[in-house]
Design brief:
The complex is a heterodimer of chains A (110) and B (118). Chain A contains no helices and eleven strands. Chain A has 110 residues and is mostly beta strands. In chain A, the strands form two sheets. In chain A, strands 2, 4, 5, 9, 10 and 11 form a six-stranded mixed beta sheet that branches. A five-stranded antiparallel beta sheet of chain A has the order 1-3-8-7-6, with no helix packed on it. Chain B has no helices and eleven strands. In chain B, the strands form two sheets. In chain B, strands 2, 4, 5, 6, 9, 10 and 11 form a seven-stranded mixed beta sheet that branches. A four-stranded antiparallel beta sheet of chain B has the order 1-3-8-7, with no helix packed on it. The chains are: A mainly beta (110), B mainly beta (118). The interface between A and B is medium-sized, with 26 and 19 residues.
């Protein structure tokens, strides 16, 4: 079951914040976030395993609301290097593979 | 850190020919690898799960006779696109979970192979 991401695309100026949402119609076992630059492979950002969990690295953080079956990725004070397509991937149970959403294209401009 | 190496980075072939893509785990043993396909501006779609020493598990709609997967060793999985046609042109990416065996482990991706069939 493919998770639903929103928005599909967003344009930010440097220093602005953004939120990307990921929701599933099924119960979530875990949520993964990846960023892909054009023509490159996706790069792992973070994984959320438990409902209510929040984590972050530098100015990128994420939360996982298990009850609502959704996760959000927060980009604070965006930098030009944040540009790319962000994918959430969800695992619905302990023995199912990772399924990616359609992605959110983020463009940060000077 | 864990590294997944994929080769070649790009390939151009003529319609009707076969193409082999290799995916290697460089510093760990991968009993399971995953093959994804990505069309331009679209998401990564799982094609199949490659299992060392046994048959691959294909996702619905993926032709197993067209996309042959071989996982003969703990460090190498190959995807062969047989009788390739222009509609097979895509970005093919392999990945592996590290650590292995845990469905909550992050995926590490190879650099991908861009296939163009003329």
């Amino acid at each position: 079951q493919q998770p639903v991401q929103s928005p599909q695309a967003v344009i930010l100026r440097e220093g602005e914040d953004a939120v990307i949402n990921c929701s599933s119609s099924k119960a979530l076992y875990s949520v993964h976030w990846y960023r892909q630059k054009h023509g490159e492979a996706p790069v792992f950002l973070m994984i959320l395993l438990k409902g209510g969990e929040q984590k972050g690295h530098e100015k990128i953080s994420a939360s996982f609301n298990e009850k609502k079956q959704q996760s959000s990725l927060y980009l604070t004070a965006s930098q030009l290097s944040y540009s790319g397509t962000y994918f959430c991937g969800t695992v619905n149970s302990g023995n199912t593979p990772l399924v990616f959403g359609k992605g959110t294209r983020l463009s940060v401009i000077a | 850190g864990a590294v997944v190496s994929q080769h070649p980075s790009w390939v151009i072939c003529k319609s009707g020919t076969s193409v082999k893509i290799e995916c290697r785990s460089l510093d760990f043993q991968a009993t399971t690898m995953f093959w994804y396909r990505q069309f331009p501006k679209q998401s990564l779609m799982l094609m199949a799960t490659s299992n060392e020493g046994s048959k691959a598990t294909y996702e619905q709609g993926v032709e197993k006779d067209k996309f042959l997967i071989n996982h003969a060793s703990l460090t190498l999985s190959t995807l062969t696109v047989t009788s390739a046609h222009p509609e097979d042109s895509s970005f093919y990416i392999c990945s592996a979970r590290v650590p292995q065996g845990a469905y909550n482990s992050p995926l590490h991706f190879g650099n991908g192979t861009r296939l163009t069939v003329t």
